[in-house]
Specification:
Layout (H helix, E strand, L loop, with lengths): L1 E4 L2 E6 L2 E9 L7 H4 L2 E4 L1 H7 L14 E6 L5 E9 L5 E5 H7 L7 E7 L1
Parallel strand pairs: 3-7, 4-6
Antiparallel strand pairs: 1-2, 2-3, 3-8, 4-7, 5-6, 5-8
Length: 115
Amino acid sequence: MILVYMGILSFIINNEFYCKATWYDTKNHPKVHRNHSTAAISRNLIMGLNITVGRKNNEDKGTMIVVTNLSNSKTDTVEVTDVCGSTNHIDLSLQSFEKISKKSVGVIKVKVKKL
């Protein structure tokens, strides 16, 4: 499946989603964002990979995904805890982003796979 929205090309192959990733600052977020890797993902990624978003009160856990940086093959296992407004995009917690790239890079190309 190929997804194109506003000039952004992303695609799903063998239940893997290829897209761009950024990071968000975790210092003003709930404690869960500082204790383990989390992510907010776009709605089309949720539908394309049949992902569950965890509730804010943490009674239900979100789907676990593996995010791989395509430039260096580093990976991180991440819990999906929110939805972001961007299309064809994943927004990683700073803790997760720094496991697979330098913070200063800002935007990276990644592969996302549901566990």
